Amino acid sequence: MAEATGETPSETAHPEDIVLQEKVESPQASSTAPGTTNDVSNGEPANTSSSADGFICGVVEGFYGRPWTTEQRKDLFRKLKQWGMDSYIYAPKDDYKHRAYWRELYTVEEADHLTGLITAAHEQGINFYYALSPGLDITYSSSKEVATLKRKLDQVSQFGCKAFALLFDDIEPEMSKPDKEVFQSFAYAQVSVTNEIYNHLNCPRFLFCPTQYCSSRAVPTVKQSEYLNTLGSKLVKAIDVLWTGPKVISKLLTVECIEEITDVLKRPPVIWDNLHANDYDQKRVFLGPYSGRSPELIPLLRGVVTNPNCEFHANAIAIQTLAFWSKCSADTKISSSISSDIKLETENEQGICEGDAPAFLSENVYHPRLALKNAIANWLPEFFEEKEAWGPITKPQPAVTMVMPIIPIIPSVNTCMTLTSTSTTTTTTSTVLPMPEVNPTQLQMFAEVCSTVTNVAEALPNPIMNSLVSATKVVTNESLPNPVAAAVNNMAIPSTIPISSIPVPMLNMKTSDNDDELPACVDASSGDDMDKPSRDDKMMTVSEEPIPVGPLQQPPADQMVEEDDKTDVVFSSASPPAAPVIPEPMECGSNLTSPKHQLKTHFDDIIMSETTSVSIAVTCSGTMQVESSDTSLEMAEDKNGQDKDITAADLMLLCDLFYLPFEHGSKALQLLAEFFWLRNNAYVLSQRSNNPRKQRTASGTSMSSLVGGAGTHAGPSNAPSTDDISEGPSEGGPVVLEGRDLSKCDAQEWFRRSASFQSLCQNIFQLTKKIARCANKEMCYDLFSYVWDIAGVLSLLSAFVKWLAMGNFPANINSNTQGGYTWFSKGWKETFMSGDQEPWVFRGGLVADLQRLIPLDAGNDLFLYKTPETSAVNVYTMRPYTFSDEAALYEICHRTAQDGDALQDRPTEAQLEQLIADRYLGPFLTMAPEFCMVIEDHNEQLVGYACAALDTKTFIRNMEQCWIPEMCLKYPLSLLPAAETESVATDPRESGTSGGEGRAAQMVRDSIYYFHNFQNDYPAAVLSKHPSLLCCRILKDYLLEDETISKRVVTVLLAALRCYGTTGGIHVCINRNDRFLFQFYAKLGFVEIPHTETDTSMYLGRNF
């Protein structure tokens, strides 16, 4: 990192006794910073007491990943002026010539863009700080290197820049060999260069970022750090020092910690605040208010600059609430991170905890939730600004090597409970089982691993992005210097290496009357293009009536279903333009590409949103760009005309879902608490399985359904009413207290809270739809992937709750679903909220916390989805199977029988038309209907299913006794031609077939043979470790469009199996020559199970 770059030790060095001399005081600069208790300015011009040069407050673009565009920065300058802030620091870590190639001068084109930025900032009264990060490879003792640094900053000075910064953060604290011969320490080397540059520029505004920039990185402590003490005594006093607080991302900043660093640095610090930074986690964006810092700190600080989210349009809350904070002098003395339980119980409909703040606050008193509410009111109009965007949606954060959506489940030494109970006895279900405790040592190790992944900068970031060659997108240079060319002289090597362009977003704002003002909200009745109906749209639907939660009101389910018929989102594959458009991903390691009007029909990952109509199409970090007039995103006007536009309540919900690094918002806590309660109290429904009228087993199914298969039978609804629970007593009889049936009361409470949970899920899906169709497509791009992630995991939880509502599970369900580390594990929530760990320890945020509640131990791979490249996606609903679905599922089985396609020459005779499905699907629907999940599209048409058998050995035995005899009667040998009937004792697959026989005829012969020669000879190697059996089929068109349909439905089904206490794996049985199914199940994590028996079948298994 900090190695010599080819300079020889013989070059002229800079003796310390010369370079450490401070600049002579200016006679006009002798006042101290306002409010400081110690005279740390020493008359330096940077610490004058005038309002213009007093408290620094603004934004530092200092994150890793895709930089902002020129136009976005200019927009920021206008907003900073409007909000009363005064500073912007240009320091994007991965911008081409800021860090990795800091030595290179700007080209004419780049100079024009940078000059325009500086001019635009000054026009708005914003101090533009140009920062350079030479620490990766600079040789501090080399006069050539220092001259190069001066030349680069002189060039920027000629562009009109009057403020500068040198950043030495995130580098190796080791000097090169030439430097060790000149400087006695790393600090002396940095101070030497910084002081010389400061004196050379003769600039009153100058910032310095140390390598030890927070208390946790001070060696050994802040007070005892030789590095920090050297800075305090040797660095020119007029140079302001950046500091992040106790941690890289600090939850709290206290008076004590500020006074401590002030004493060491001999000057008040400028806080580089990473509270809203999200470049370390692609699953989190932070929309909560600025908090954890009392305004009483302001007199003790030189300033505060926020390093916010990578997504430009996601930062309105972070920046505005900082602006509100900077104008206050006191707070309400209430910590924003109060107990999550108290917050959940006391927060009122305005999103403020009761008793947390008085009805009226003085203007100089800061309250985070009130600041959030005001910032949302100012943010809302931006959603109605008509802005266009093109390209694929990609994450702006740098690619992370280690992907851990779920923290591994490790048994705790503090509990005697195993992860998954293997006992088959019924436990006392009313007793809450102990949760595993969080081991702080494990968290610390996890933190160290994450730190090495996310915080150590590479010497040559790849790709190197350039935000100064286009006003509306970020690209890479056409070529980079070839490092080999300088070291090799005896052969011709190109001096540069060409690099493919990584075009990012092309973001354009439609003409506006006044660029300096934010346009007002678009009238709801203005008839914009986005409100026009799209006849080809597809979206998920709702099957039960929701119960409104809080202030977010929902229309009745019947209205929503009708609405969805008109307001769905379609994945459009419109005709391509005349000239081909090259996809332009917007991030490092982009995984998706799709330009406007060339939207693919095949995703690697899309969400299958659940329970309510939603056009899951919100944005992620801004790249996929779709014009506001693109028909694939057009929505029909809602039936009642009330919910088509996003509201302040919607944005409050959005902010609660993505709150702060150490804190979930109230609605996020409600999601966690409600699902956890429903999962842990589902045992009150298990008694219904003892009611003969409620059991869904073969004994309750008419023989006509066993034989005919496609009858229309009335089955239980997928959301039982609370009246059903009283139809029969439990095994020990009902528990009665004071004349009340407690089992009935408990079940009614369960269904009430289930409806509340489903309603909250529906509100989130509605929010997703609104963001998808908002006029501001740049905003849509920046928010889509995050809301998509939340909606995706909620689709799983909602489907699982629907399955629990059926009551088809054992009474000891709790002993089968406990054991993993979750939000509710002892110490987990407290550790998360304490701020003692850096937030990347809990990578994944709310999405990961929700995923951990799904009772799977080894299903992490099922949660790995790629971000959809467009917000115009199909959304599907998962629910438990009902008997009325039988005919549709039989049809799906036939339509996927031949390599995922419909079987050609399918038999049409009445006696044979159900043969194939009776072999592959019928046994599951008849003998294990409780383990069957179906997938519906927006029209409530079934498009796929997943079925399972808990114990294959028992399942096969039941087939042999109940199913096979009925099939032999239904499909007698007389259905085969006479010549084949005589030889049916021989497997027709072995005897061969005529060359002219089709695939359908072969499958008919095989199936009839299978029924009449059924053999219960399952390989022991399969059943020993993978006792459960799975079958999954999805119509090929839908599968090609969204491969994650299968992942999501299988995840719910595996969770249902876990509720029965299965501790082994699951397997599938396919034909050894069926490459389509092999690849289909391989994508679901199934691998071949080796066994000794020779068979034409192949067995694939996986654990969960």
TrEMBL record:
GO terms for biological process: glycoprotein metabolic process. The keyword Signal applies. The keyword Signal applies. Residues 55-330 form the GH84 domain. Residues 27-51 have a biased composition (Polar residues). Residues 1-51, 688-735 are annotated as: Disordered. One of its GO terms (molecular function) is [protein]-3-O-(N-acetyl-D-glucosaminyl)-L-serine/L-threonine O-N-acetyl-alpha-D-glucosaminase activity. This is protein O-GlcNAcase. It comes from Anopheles sinensis (Mosquito). The lineage of its organism: Eukaryota, Metazoa, Ecdysozoa, Arthropoda, Hexapoda.
